[in-house]
């Protein structure tokens, strides 16, 4: 077990859960998503799975940042809603947008279809995710690149909005990522950020970013909304994955998918419900270049 990882007072969430060192985490993340993409490619699900996020459901008495409605029978309805909640009041039309940790391209597909951005770029560590994105997206405004969130291959001040959805929990050096977001954003640009982290990790994000060229415009706890989406969808998703697999029961496969999808009653779901993790939406505005670049 290694010592603290840059970017917080304790080991990153994923490092703790997997009991691995910082040097291993990226290889393990690539391995996991390569296996997941390979699995999907062998099934009828491959053409339909665009998202890996946990989704969002509106709840009575809780505020929402997006005022629209989505069709009840829409595929990936909760995942699309999470993207729209993250964007909230941000002006997207005519903007250049970077999605870091783009997965299978669902976030950029949502933004391309519902708004009129000038350019959309997705970057992800996993080459199979990028291959899927390139093969399924024909919009000329959208481009996808394999890359590292902690070392973005884009020029300074290249984008108006950077989005990051449920991805940063796997970054072993989170402050490097925060510096890179500052570097590639134009002054006045927005960092739209949502993830499932420990409370102390969110505290660190607020402190580091506001001390290094960002103002915090909004911060909302959406844990209850995300757990509601898990209650609604996770079991159905598990059944779909298992039916598509068509193979005999595999305890390791079942345990991995239960962890990944977090159905109600799973250890991961319970740890979130008990408050050990929070799911939040934070929107930062770049006011100046990062002092630690």
Main sheet: strands, sense, barrel: 7 strands, mixed
As a whole number of angstroms, the C-alpha radius of gyration is 18 Å
Silhouette: globular
Briefly, what CATH class of the domain at 64-222 and 276-286? Alpha Beta
Mind telling me which CATH architecture of the domain at 64-222 and 276-286 this is? 3-Layer(aba) Sandwich
End-to-end separation in angstroms reads 29 Å
What string, H for helix and E for strand, traces the elements in order? HHHEHEHEEHEHEHHHE
What this model shows, in words?
The chain has 10 helices and 7 strands. The chain is an alpha/beta fold. It has a 7-stranded mixed β-sheet, sandwiched between helices. Helix 3 packs across helix 4 and helix 8 runs antiparallel to helix 9. The protein is globular and about 50 Å long. The relative contact order is 0.15. The N terminus is likely disordered. It holds the Pfam family Methyltransf_11.
């Amino acid at each position: 077990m290694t010592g603290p990882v840059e970017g917080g007072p304790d080991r990153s969430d994923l490092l703790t859960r997997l009991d691995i060192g910082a040097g291993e985490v990226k290889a393990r993340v690539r391995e996991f998503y390569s296996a997941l993409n390979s699995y999907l490619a062998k099934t009828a699900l491959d053409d339909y799975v665009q998202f890996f996020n946990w989704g969002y459901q509106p709840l009575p008495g809780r505020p929402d940042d997006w005022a629209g409605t989505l069709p009840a029978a829409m595929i990936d309805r909760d995942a699309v809603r999470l993207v729209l909640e993250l964007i909230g009041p941000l002006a997207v039309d005519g903007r250049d947008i970077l999605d870091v940790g783009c997965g299978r391209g669902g976030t950029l597909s949502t933004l391309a279809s519902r708004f009129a951005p000038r350019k959309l770029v997705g970057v992800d560590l996993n080459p199979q995710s990028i291959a899927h994105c390139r093969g399924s997206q024909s919009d000329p405004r959208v481009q996808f690149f394999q890359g590292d969130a902690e070392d973005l291959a884009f020029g300074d001040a290249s984008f108006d909005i950077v989005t990051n959805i449920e991805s940063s929990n796997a970054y072993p050096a989170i402050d490097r990522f925060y510096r890179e977001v500052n570097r590639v954003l134009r002054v006045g640009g927005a960092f739209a950020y949502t993830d499932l982290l420990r409370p102390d990790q969110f505290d660190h994000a607020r402190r580091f970013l506001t001390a290094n060229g960002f103002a915090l415009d909004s911060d909302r706890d959406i844990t209850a909304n995300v757990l509601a989406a898990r209650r609604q969808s996770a079991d159905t998703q598990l059944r779909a994955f298992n039916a598509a697999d068509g193979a005999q029961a595999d305890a390791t496969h079942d345990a991995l998918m239960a962890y990944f999808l977090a159905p109600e009653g799973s250890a991961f779901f319970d740890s979130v419900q008990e408050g050990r993790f929070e799911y939040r939406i934070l929107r930062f505005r770049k006011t100046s270049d990062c002092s630690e670049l």
